[in-house]
Task: structure prediction
Amino acid sequence: MSPCSLRPRKPFVGLALFALAGIALAERWPQPAWFVICGTGAVGALLLIWRNTWICRVFTGAVFFALHSLRQQGGEIDFARTLESGSQTAVATGVVWSEPESFVGGRGEKHARFELKLRTLHAGAEDVCAGALCLVRWSGLAPKYGDVVSLKGAARPLAGLRNPGEFDNAAWLRRHGVNFEIATRNESDCEIVGKGEGSPIQVFAIAARAWVKERLEIGLADAPNETALIESMVLGMRGETPAEMKAMFQKTGTLHLFAVSGLNVAMLAAIAWYLLKPLRFSRAGAFFVIMPLLIAYAIATGLGASCVRATVMAGFFLAAPIAGRPAVPLNSIAAAALAILAWETNELFSPGFQLSFVLVLMIMLLAEPISRRVERIAKPDDFIPVELWTASQKTRMTLWKILSQATGVTIAAWLGSLFFMAGYFHLISPVAIVANSIAVPLAFFVLALGLMSLIVSFLSVPLLTVVNCANWACAKLLLLVVAFFARVPGGHIYVEYPRIGPTPLCEITALDVGQGAAIHLRAGRGDWMFDCGHLRDYERTVLPYLRSRGVNRLDGLILSHGDSSHIGGAIPLITDFSPMWIADTPFMDRSSSRRDLHVEIAARKSGRRIFKRGDEVALSPSAKLRVLYPPPEILRNSSDDKALVCSVEAEGLRVLLMSDAGFFTEQWLLANEPDLHADVLIMGWHDKDFSGTPDFLSKVQPRAVVCSEPPFGTTPDKFAVWSTALEQKGVRVFPQQQCGAVQIELRAAGEVSVAPVVR
Result:
C-alpha cells in the first residue's frame, strides 16, 4: 500500500512515520539550535507556498527533528559533562519533584532519594542550571513531595552501568531530564525551608492514591501478598510487592498486570461503557463521561507513563464519533503517537512506548485472522445453514466464538511481545499464551471489585469489607494460577543475545560487587559460578547478569570461603539456578552465612563436594579448573588464609583465581607450586594482611591483573603506588572500583581478551 492510498482516511499515519524518522535522525545526528530552527522555518515556508502532502510530512519530520535536537541541549547537560572530570561541591535549593524513596544505611542512618527541581545551584564560580532536574541523595528523614529544600553536597555524574545485564538507571534518568546528582553526607547539610510548592495535580494524585490504598486495605490486614497484588493492579503500586511474586508474573508473561497500562484503561472504559449503555448514551455522548473518568484514573495512579499513553490512545479512539465518522484504529494509533511524542520525544526510546504500540498493531493485524482459524475448528458443516443449527450447536458456537476471539488477541499479543521480552528481559515464555487467557479475566474482576470498593466506601464500611474480601478471593486465585504456570516445566526460558563470531574456549566474567567476588565461568555449554557476592548484590547484579547470559541452570557453584561478601547470595542463587553440585572447602570458620548455607544444602539434599589441592574439574573438552590451594593439612585461623585458589586452563592459557588470599597463601604457593604462571590474575584483598606481593606477582607474570575494590582504609595513594609498579612492567591493571566488571575470553592460538565494562 502506498503512502498516498493512506491519505483519505489515515492522514496521521504518514505524519507519524516522518515524526519517527525525524526523532531517530536527531538522536543519531543532533544539530545546534540555530540550524534546526532555520531548517524547520525553511520547510515551513515551502509548505505555505506549496500545500503538498509530502511537504507537510517532511515539515512534520523537521519539527520533530528540531524538538529532539533541542531536548538534547541545555545548561544542565553541559554542566553534567564538566562533572566527568571530577565532582564539585554544590549548594542548591529547589522543590522536591518526585515522591522520596526512603531507605536505611548500613549503620541504621536514614536516607532518601528523590528528584529535585532546582531553583538555584552554585557550583564552582557561578550559578548554573536553574530550573533543571537533578537526583538528590538526602541524609536524614525524607522530605515530602512539594517541599522546598536547601542542601550542600557533591555534584557528580550519574552512576553508569557497571555490570552486564544490570538496569541502566543513569540512561533512564537522562531520558527523563535528570543529568546529574547531588549527594549529601550529613543531616546538617540538608534543610527543609518551605512547603507546598509542588504541582497541584501531583499533590492531588498522591493524596488520592493514599486514600484509595487505605480503602483497598480495609479488612485485609492479614493478607499482605493479596493486598499488594490488588494495589499493584488497581494503582500500579509495586514498591511493597514481594520480589518472588514479581518473578512469578514475569516468568508467566503476565507482568503487565502489575502496571497500570492499556489493559487497565481498556477494562475501565469497558466497565463504564456497559454501565452507560442501559442509559441510552450515544457513543459521542459517552466520550464526555468516559474520558474524564480515564483522566481522573490516570491522575489517581500517579500519571505513570504507561497509563498516560493508554489514556491518550483511548481518547483518540473514543473521540472519532464526535467528528461524525467511525474510528479508524490505525489512524487513531498514529495520532496518539504524534501527541505523545510531541509532549516528550524521548518516549520513542522507552520500552513501554515501543511495546504498547507494537502490541496494538499486532493485535489489529493478527487477532482477527487467528480467531477465524480457531473458530473454524468447532464450526458445523459449512453446507448446513445457520438457521438449521440446533440449540446446542448455537450455544457451543457462541461460547467458542468468544474463546476464539480471546485466543486470537492473546496469541497476537504474545507474538508482538516476543522480541521485546527476549530483548529487554532475555525471556521467552511459551506458557504466557495459556496463562494470560486465565489471568486476564481474573485481573478484570480484581480491577472491577477494586473500583466497586471505592464506590461502596461512601455507603458502608461493612459492605466495603465484604467487597474487599471478595477481591481477596479473586487475587488469591490469580496468585495460585500464576504460581502453577510458573512451575510448568519448559514454560519459560532465558535466552542470550545471539553471538557474532567464533565462540571462545572459555569466558570468565568478574562482576563488580565491591570488596566481594562473583565470577562467572563459561566453557562449551556449561556455566559455573566462583563465589556469588553479598546478598545485597544478588538481586541487583548477579541475577540480572546470569539471566542476560541465558543461564537457566548452573552446572556448579564453587565457594571460596565463608566471607559474606563472597557467599552471601548463595541461598537465593541455589533457589533460582539449582546448581548440579556445590563445592566447598573442608575447613570450618565462624561465618554465619556459611552455616546458614550448609543448613540449606542439607535441607535440599544438594550434591556437595569438598575441594582441596590437586582436584580437577573438566569444564569442557578444551578447558579445566584445577585447585591449587588449600591442602588438607593447612592450619590457619583467618578464613582468608583458607580460601580456595584455582586455576582455569584452556590450551595453554591460564587465569588464576586468588579470592582474598594474602601473604601466607602467596608464600605457600611460591614454595609448593612449581608453575604459577598465568595470563590473567583475578584477585581480592586479604582482610588483615598483604595481597599481591611483588615476589608473588613476579612468579605469576600476568599480562593483566583484575582486582576488586580495596578494603576500607586503603588510601588511594597506596593503591596507586602498587598499580603503577605493575603498569611499569607492562602489566595492565583493571581496578574494579574504576572499570566495573571485567570480561575475559580465552581463544584459540593463545589469544587473550580482557575488556572492562566501564572504559
